[in-house]
Amino acid sequence: MSVQHKQLAQYFLNGDEDGALDYMEELVKVHSKAFLYQEIITPAMYYIGELWEQNKITVADEHLATAICDFSLSRLESELKPIKGKHQTNYKALLFGVEDEQHYIGLKMVADTFKEQGWRVRYLGPNLSMEHSMSQIEKFRPDVIGLSAALSYRLPVLKKVLYRFMELEWKPLVMIGGRMAKKFQLDEFESAQVMVVKDLNHLYQWFNEGREGAINETS
Amino acid sequence: MKQVERVFPLPYYRINKNFFIYAYSKEACDLHGVKEHLLDIFDEASLTKVKGTIKPEIQKASLEVHLKPLDEEDSIKTADMYVSWENDLYAEVLLHVKDERLSKVTQTLTQLRSRLNDTNFELFEEKEKLEEAIEQSNRLSAPFIVLSADTAMIPLFGDITIEKMHAVEDSLLKSSQREGIDRLLFDFTAVGEFNRDGIHVLTDMMKSLFYMGAEIIIIGIQPHQAKQLNDLKLPLEINYMHSLQQAVAKYCAQ
Ligand code: B12
């Protein structure tokens, strides 16, 4: 069993942003970013959840850990990405967390993953109201709309936004991800236009094979 | 089950080890109504923690838990919980909801974060504009100029980078397929630095054009640039000329 995620979680919990960043930088020298996201950072955050369940840390610690994780992700992203004159594709993705949802670390990694695949990405952060997201969507006209939700109580909101997005005339693909997609059976939502994504591997799989036909090339 | 008066104005419960509620305070009732079972007040994702911590073997415990929202309007609350076992059968439980302080911190953090995200977003939009501008300028840095029926000139501008070469590759290959053009003058007079990968793409492009039958003439190249090009093993038949003037005089005089 790997202990790297526990080590990283420790840096997060200690508020040690330099330690966390150094650790991540060492890891991306030998591993892909996909591996870092899926096999180290995500488990590190889940591990923090376990520590809370074991009564070893509090929500305040989770806040600190999240801030350090967020910061390191941003730094890592900016360090690895020079300004280039070209996008590999013309696909566009718009990502956000539904109203009252504060869990966004997963979404942030997803945003970066789309960027790495050459997509144009609008990452709007967590807790976005319906009006706000609609106006951004109309303006940007994304091929993929990605939603994230962790809390089980978000199910009604999620339903509401889904139905709105299905009415969009250019028929973007709507992806649902986050803890909710992992924990709960959301199959009833799935259709040609809606996809439930369990984790990053699932997303990569889609990038590699499943995309044809799901979004139209010309938009 | 009965309501009791307590000294502390906090939600209080007396439970057995199956979490059955024997007594509760008024504050407990205000918090979550009258419940038979203590487990009914917790969020589902707190249950493992509660069951793992509240048991007679752990005589005194304090833990943080999340309480279920009361209805769709309500939100999940975080509370500190203090447990003390009187004996193996009964425990006293005190709750202290800490939402107000916590939500203030949370809100502040959220605002900071969203401001950061907005800034980030603006920066990102600027970056995209910049990227578009760079691409635009890349595409324009190798125009295809037809000089005569069979000769075209491609003046290159600025540094030879991989992005730039990729940006011009397609249109150059296409333009040079045009009927009648069988001589291409690459003018390096306005070229700055060579970038390794960029020059690779450029020489590959020249090689393709050459094998497709075009005569390639390189103009205005600096000695140190010529050396770099030579290292890349261009076909020997490529000609070099000192200046554009010379080239035009030779190939375009009719
Ligand atoms: C850290 C954390 C927080 C941080 C949030 C920071 C953040 N991560 O954004 C803070 C402290 C702010 C927080 C707040 C709260 N939290 Co919290 N939190 C967690 C914790 C410990 C980890 C979450 C996390 O970071 N996961 C890591 C990410 C990377 O995983 P992920 O979201 O699943 O994302 C992956 C995939 O799902 C996928 N993905 C995600 N989104 C998308 C979107 C698309 C389009 C695609 C394709 C893929 C995709 O990509 C990711 C890559 O691996 C969890 C415990 C757990 N096991 O989940 C609790 C947990 C989710 N939180 C919980 C609770 C109760 C809360 C609070 C209500 C109370 C509190 N703790 O203060 C508030 C909620 C406020 C609100 N209104 O939203 C509960 C939820 C219970 C429930 N019934 O749903 C949990 C389960 C803890 C628990 N056991 O009680 N929390």
Automatic annotation (TrEMBL), chain A:
Stretches assigned to the B12-binding domain: 90-219
GO molecular function, one term: methionine synthase activity
Coiled-coil intervals: none
Lineage top rank: taxon: Bacteria
UniProt entry keywords in alphabetical sequence: Cobalt, Metal-binding
Keyword Nucleus on entry: no
One of the protein's GO biological processes: tetrahydrofolate metabolic process
UniProt GO cellular component terms: cytosol
Metal-binding in keyword set: yes
Entry protein name: Methanogenic corrinoid protein MtbC1
UniProtKB/TrEMBL annotation, chain B:
Keywords assigned by UniProt, alphabetized: Coiled coil
UniProt-recorded name of the protein: RsbT co-antagonist protein RsbR
InterPro entries: Bact_StressResp_Reg, STAS_dom, STAS_dom_sf
SUPFAM superfamilies the record matches: SpoIIaa-like
Keyword Coiled coil: yes
Domain STAS: 141-251
Database matches in PANTHER family: BLUE-LIGHT PHOTORECEPTOR (PTHR33745:SF8), RSBT ANTAGONIST PROTEIN RSBS-RELATED (PTHR33745)
Ranges in a coiled coil: 113-140
UniProt keyword annotation of Coiled coil present: yes
